[in-house]
Write a structure and sequence with these properties.
By secondary structure, the protein is mostly helical. 74% of the residues lie in helices and 3% in strands. The chain has one domain (2-304). Pathway: Cofactor biosynthesis; adenosylcobalamin biosynthesis.
Length: 306
C-alpha cells in the first residue's frame, strides 16, 4: 500500500506546487543532453544508442543505489520527490486553461500565442476551432506522456522506473525526429520511448474511455488509431477524442506546410469547452488510477496478513 500512498503524495505535491519555476531537474538534464549530443553525435544508430545510454542510465542507476543505501523514510521521501518532478498534471492545466479562457473571450491572437507554448505546429494561421483542437490534442497526448506514463512506471519499478521513463520521454522530444540530423542518431530515443509507452498509452486510452463516452471512445480507438503515425499517440488521442464527443485531427501547419492528418473522434467541433473537458477527463482519470492503486494495495496488504 505504500506505493499508492507515495503516488498520492506526489500528485498532491504537484497540485500544491506545480512545476518548479527555477532549477527544474529536467531543464538541467536538457543542458546535459545538448552537451552529450555535441560530443557524441554521428550519423549512425549505434552512436544514438550509446548517447542515449550515457544520458539516461547513470542517473537511473545512481538513484537506485542511493535508495538502497538510505533509511526507508529517506528512500520514500526521494521516491515522492522523484515522481513529483516527473509529473506535469498541474502544468498541463496552467498551459491549456489560458487557451480556453482566451477563446471564450474572443481573443484569438492571445489564444494562438498561448497554444504556441503547448504545440510544435505553426499557430499564426490557426482559426478558433484549430486552436481549440491543438490544445485539446496536447492535453490528451501529454496526459499520457506527463502523467499516466510516469505513474505506471513508478507503480511498476518505483522511483528509478519513473525517472527512466521521464528521461527517455524527454530524449524522444529532443532527438526523436525524422530529419537528416536525427534520422539515425535519434532512432534509439524514438524506439525506446515507443516501447516504454506501449502499455501506459493503452491504459491511458482505456482510462479516457472509462471517464467519458465509453463505447464511442473504444470505437474511435479501434477504427482511427491504426491510421495515426505514432503507435502510442494514436490510441490515446483517438480514445480521448471519442470519450469527449469531439472531432480532432485533420489538417495542421508544420514549418509553413499544411499536413493532412487522420481524423480523431466524433461529435462536435473543438472549442474552448473541449479544452476544459479534456482537463477534467485527465484529472478524473488520475483519481481512478490512484483509487485502483489504493484498492490494490489494500488487497495485497490484506492477503499478506490473512
Amino acid at each position: 500500500m505504500s506505493t499508492a500512498l507515495l503516488m498520492i503524495a506526489a500528485v498532491m505535491l504537484d497540485k500544491l506546487l506545480g512545476e518548479p519555476r527555477r532549477a527544474h531537474p529536467l531543464v538541467a538534464f536538457g543542458r546535459v543532453v545538448h552537451g552529450i549530443e555535441r560530443r557524441m553525435h554521428a550519423d549512425t544508430r549505434w552512436a544514438g544508442v550509446l548517447a542515449w545510454s550515457v544520458a539516461v542510465l547513470p542517473s537511473v542507476l545512481l538513484l537506485w543505489v542511493l535508495q538502497q543505501a538510505m533509511p526507508i523514510w529517506a528512500s520514500r521521501l526521494i521516491a515522492v520527490l522523484t515522481l513529483y518532478f516527473t509529473l506535469g498534471l498541474r502544468s498541463l492545466g496552467e498551459h491549456a486553461q489560458p487557451v480556453a479562457t482566451a477563446l471564450q473571450s474572443g481573443e484569438l491572437d492571445a489564444a494562438r500565442g498561448a497554444v504556441g507554448r503547448m504545440v510544435s505546429r505553426d499557430t499564426a494561421a490557426l482559426n478558433t476551432h484549430q486552436v481549440a483542437a491543438a490544445a485539446t490534442e496536447s492535453v490528451l497526448e501529454n496526459g499520457n506522456d506527463a502523467v499516466f506514463g510516469a505513474l505506471f512506471w513508478f507503480a511498476l519499478l518505483g522511483a528509478p522506473g519513473a525517472l527512466l521513463y521521464r528521461l527517455a520521454n524527454t530524449l524522444d522530444a529532443m532527438w526523436g525526429y525524422r530529419t537528416p540530423r536525427y534520422e539515425r542518431f535519434g532512432w534509439a530515443a524514438a524506439r525506446i520511448d515507443d516501447v516504454l509507452n506501449y502499455v501506459p498509452a493503452r491504459l491511458t486510452a482505456f482510462t479516457y474511455a472509462l471517464c467519458g463516452n465509453f463505447n464511442r471512445a473504444l470505437r474511435c480507438w479501434r477504427e482511427q488509431a491504426p491510421q495515426w503515425d505514432s503507435p502510442n499517440a494514436g490510441p490515446v488521442m483517438a480514445a480521448g477524442a471519442g470519450a469527449l464527443d469531439v472531432r480532432l485531427g485533420g489538417a495542421a501547419p508544420y514549418h509553413g506546410v499544411w499536413e493532412e492528418r487522420p481524423a480523431l473522434g466524433e461529435g462536435d467541433p473543438p472549442s474552448a469547452e473541449s479544452i476544459s473537458r479534456a482537463l477534467r477527463l485527465l484529472r478524473n482519470g488520475v483519481i481512478v488510477w490512484l483509487t485502483v492503486a489504493l484498492l490494490w494495495g489494500f488487497a495485497i496488504h490484506g492477503g499478506l496478513h490473512a
